Design the sequence.
């Protein structure tokens, strides 16, 4: 297969999917073999400029013989069933974030993918191609920061207007999305907080609000405290109601702290090991010499989605390690599910969480808050480029 | 009384009290009339350089006729009984932070003070004289920030070594201090978070740890989420185990956000009202023009303790409004008490809190954790100037 292009079938031609089509058409090693949407108008619109084969049923596209891989960009609840259909039909599958709405479904598709080790199963963790986050991860994995004591991410620059929520009837509903800011805006942050640090929390205590600043039925604000098994503490603070908002990712450890803000990494590095000074210094108020360092990192070429998709293609053609392997898709989702359940029930939640318990919680939320969204759906021109968080 | 100096009796001649003596001796409108400590060595050492009358019992000093006001700088539990003795004897009282260990005792001394409206009762909220915090408060009270939506304070630059905790047997014990980082290091931050914003939370959800990075029996780390009655959210993150630590105080509102860090106030001001744009913009991803402004504020002369004490003296002599009126001392304490109880019981706590419930909780903590401090007390030279948080 190394001498030919990977043919994608793009399913779900809304804001994201319709953007992927021209991007993939421009790739050296990939092309779009077909497009699919249950809405014929959307399928026509995406197929037209390239005169592509089009379908209204993803199963027909899968068995058409026209494609090698499915790119799933449908509403969230359809990610898992379509990915399973693709994998079971012998195709590769690349799924937009989030992998699923709930951990149970995510674990299910991961189990299916394990049965087909020769097919690639990836998640569109495009922000893993962001060289700033890659650099932070490299520094931490290399031990530059020492043992981590605190991970704090204030990520409140996800401002969304009432018009945004009115732009799709499914938006900001339990039935349509299975959540709000955690499931739609934050999946990348929730993935990065575990990917950059290499740590999964074991307990989450959160305070969340449904429809605080928008007339919607899902959460638009969440504040969470994360406890890690080795004693580190974490914080995750988000909302879609603040502007201009803050995006500050701060990680403290035995050798100082890393701060990512305004696209810049600052490393305030302690000359001595903090724990050692804490335990052994003869001084009560020991001040540790620290150096404020601007950490350089390379600028990347192309867009993040393009780079992630090209990596996926290269994994298929040349066995390149995947940046966003599907099996890791559950980690950030699990953190988000735990925040959601803790934040809306106001009780601490232990991880790993029970998939059935979470699904029952989701049904409770739908019952309790369903119908509270009072915005009429309006056709709105959407520029998705404006939606990606500025790191 | 306007033609003479206010004569202070300084009781408690440890690190703080022994520093206040020479400072007050240098004031134009105040002097030290006497000093007092249960430890004769400390009383001698403080009295010596100025040849001051000295006592080992605060009641004797109070009735000596040598003083007009008592400055209480004893361990925390003695603040309330000594202040009450002073007030009931017709003297003014200025109390080091915290006003008390628990809200019940704080409310008690406030009730006593109300009976003596002609005597001044103040708390050493020296950081209220910090022009940076004064400026932030002015901007907020003037409405420059609009309605507040989020208050986040990462205040992790309270690094304290094991040697610090070994420097006094009473330190970091329930019986000696009634708490750790919240009651000893953070009272100013806990006061400022309500003084600068003018808002008291109505519910606190916290995660705290006893002896996480030090072998002590009280909390040395606390992460708290604050809910305000008008819908604003707050966060307070502190520890004595991190270095160099962060001190970033961020307040978001309808006109952007204020950030205080590194002694600098940055106002990222939105040109339009955030709530109005949220509700009325025709765009899904509205980006609001914002201006990054360095807010100027005057540099203050003299030390903070000196300025607060001089303000207290001026309140006595000339009726100047007090910067740290005693009645306000309970606010920050109440926030700290609620954090402590929530953080160590892992249950949300509503404010105002029940004083008896909190006192029972304190006794539970003493029973549960008492004796876990395993540091032998050592004589350590302490430079208190190193202890004040750099704003």
Sequence:
């Amino acid at each position: 297969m190394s001498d030919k292009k990977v043919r994608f079938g793009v399913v779900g031609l809304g804001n994201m999917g319709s953007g992927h089509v021209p991007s993939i058409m421009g790739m050296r090693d990939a092309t779009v073999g077909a497009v699919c949407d249950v809405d014929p108008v959307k399928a026509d619109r995406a197929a037209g400029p390239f005169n592509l084969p089009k379908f209204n049923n993803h199963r027909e596209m899968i068995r058409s013989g026209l494609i090698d891989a499915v790119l799933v960009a449908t509403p969230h609840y359809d990610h898992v069933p379509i990915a399973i259909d693709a994998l079971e039909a012998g195709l590769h599958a690349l799924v937009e974030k989030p992998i699923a709405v709930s951990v149970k479904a995510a674990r299910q598709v991961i189990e299916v993918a394990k049965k087909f080790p020769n097919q690639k199963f990836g998640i569109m963790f495009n922000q893993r191609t962001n060289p700033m986050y890659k650099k932070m991860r490299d520094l931490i994995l290399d031990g530059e920061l020492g043992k981590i004591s605190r991970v704090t991410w204030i990520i409140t620059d996800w401002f969304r207007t009432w018009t945004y929520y009115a732009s799709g009837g499914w938006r900001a509903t339990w039935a349509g999305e299975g959540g709000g800011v955690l499931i739609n805006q934050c999946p990348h942050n929730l993935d990065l907080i575990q990917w950059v640090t290499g740590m999964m929390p074991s307990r989450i205590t959160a305070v969340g609000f449904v429809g605080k600043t928008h007339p919607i039925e899902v959460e638009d604000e969440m504040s969470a405290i994360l406890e890690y098994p080795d004693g580190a503490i974490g914080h995750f603070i988000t909302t879609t109601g603040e502007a201009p908002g803050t995006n500050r990712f701060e990680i403290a450890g035995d050798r100082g702290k890393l701060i990512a803000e305004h696209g810049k990494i600052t490393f305030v590095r302690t000359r001595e090991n903090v724990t050692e000074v804490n335990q052994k210094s003869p001084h009560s108020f020991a001040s540790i010499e620290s150096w404020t360092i601007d950490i350089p990192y390379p600028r990347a070429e192309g867009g993040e989605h393009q780079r992630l998709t090209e990596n996926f293609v290269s994994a298929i053609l040349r066995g390149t390690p995947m940046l966003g392997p599907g099996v890791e898709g559950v980690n950030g989702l699990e953190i988000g599910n735990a925040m959601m359940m803790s934040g809306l029930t106001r009780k601490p939640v232990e991880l790993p969480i029970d998939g059935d318990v979470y699904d029952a919680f989701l049904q409770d939320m739908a019952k309790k808050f369903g119908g509270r969204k009072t915005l009429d759906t309006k056709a709105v021109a959407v520029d998705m480029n404006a939606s990606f968080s500025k790191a």
Q: What stands out?
A: Chain A touches chain B through 63 residues (CB under 8 Å). The longest strand of chain A covers residues 219-227. Chain A has a mean pLDDT of 94.
